[in-house]
Design brief:
Layout (H helix, E strand, L loop, with lengths): L3 H20 L5 H46 L10 H20 L1
Helix pairs in contact: 1-2, 2-3
Length: 105
Amino acid sequence: MWDFRNSLAASMVDMLAKVMSEALPEELMDTLQHVQIASLEEKKRRAQAVVATAAVAAAALGEAYIGIMELVFKGEMCIDDIGTKKGKETMAELFKNNLKNSKEK
């Protein structure tokens, strides 16, 4: 879930850090470096949250696909139905249920 505002803010912080590194007196450079480290930690935290979210979504989608294959195997759905409106609705419903169940765990 990429957010343009957060990306823009991060770019502005990077630009500010660069300008400050050129403008600050040497005795304040340690402080600037600590601020930059804190910025990196925040970026790392946000990146980990995005990766975790993507992993949950991928797992839910994979489980939905397996659910569809089980329906086909049991004869409750025809393989040709997967591309139809009904098949897509079934896949979407399975995906949403799997996503909801993963949030409850």
